[in-house]
Amino acid sequence: MSEAPQGCAWIEGSYLPIAEARIPILDTGFVRSDLTYDVVAVWGGKFFRLDDHLDRLERGCERVRLRSPMSRAETEEILEQVVARSGLREAYVETVITRGVPTPGERDPRRFENRLYAYAIPYVWIQRPEQQEVGSKVVVARDTVRVSPGAIDPTVKNFMWGDFVRGLFEAYDRGAVLPILTDGDGNVTEGPGVNVFVVRDGALATPARGVLEGITRQTVLDIATELGIPARVGEVPVSALYETEEIFLTSTAGGVMPVAELDGRPVGAGGVGSLSARIRATYWDWHDDPRFTRSVDYGD
Ligand code: PXG
């Protein structure tokens, strides 16, 4: 029996069961959303593309001028420990770096001591596998656009989910489960925790700008290269969503998630498209491929 089967957190030097993990209320991560974070999956007891996730976290820190208090090796050790102590073979593993807790009266963000938090919990599905088998219902949000990259840099993973949460309510109101947000200028961006792919004439396309450079998105591009499927990263006009054969969404929390219905109408022939299904299967095969995985030492 593991010491923290529901999950394990590392907070200020201690490993704690997830239900006991607390952050200080004055941490600017909480009161200002002044932070960046990353989520890596463990599948079958192995981290998937851990180096890519940690590279992205480091790039994000540089872009918003955060400095992790932990070295890369220390971070890797903490992530391994939260997983090993939870005993979880399929886990969602989050690392958060916040600006930290100011000394009383301090407002200059350069003077804060940045903090790192980390935890592992059971793997999270944005769409459950049963739903992925049939595809999900999605809408193009009409009431909300994605926040401008000039305001919040979407390539730095962040908790400023105001646009996404508003979009989610709109999606539920319209009988769907997820919104796709536009840039307000006729182009597709992304959805809450997901990148967007369209398939046209057997080729993939995904937006280049105004989005997180998802590791699952990269994995799909790598799979496309390996399978000889043409793929393009560039502008995706909203109109392309309505002329496409297939649409799927990608995230560490769920993988490759086919979309069956857009704005109440079937996508392509309806159901799950053949390319989406093939890419999804390969995506999960790669979770056991030594090129992309690193085993967790559970000590048993
Ligand atoms: N766009 C945004 C805004 C995200 O937050 C993605 C795209 C996909 O990126 P990855 O690297 O995961 O392929 C994300 C990732 C959750 C959850 O619980 C969300 C994400 C990842 C893990 C869990 O909603 N978002």
Count of DSSP-assigned helices: 8
The small molecules bound here are:
3-[O-phosphonopyridoxyl]--amino-benzoic acid
Under CATH at level 1, the class of the largest domain stands as Alpha Beta
Distance between the termini: 11 Å
Beta-strand portion reads 25-35%
Largest sheet: 8 strands, mixed
Spans of at least 5 consecutive residues with low confidence: none
Number of domains: 2
Corresponding CATH architecture of the largest domain: Alpha-Beta Barrel
Cα-based radius of gyration, to the nearest Å: 20 Å
Q: How many beta strands in the DSSP annotation? A: 15
The average pLDDT value, as a whole number, equals: 97
Given helix and strand content, the structural type is alpha+beta
Query: Judging from the principal axes of the Cα atoms, what is the shape?
Result: globular
CATH superfamily of the largest domain: D-amino Acid Aminotransferase, subunit A, domain 2
Helix content: 25-40%
Order of helices and strands: EEHEEHHEEHEHEEEHEHEEEHE
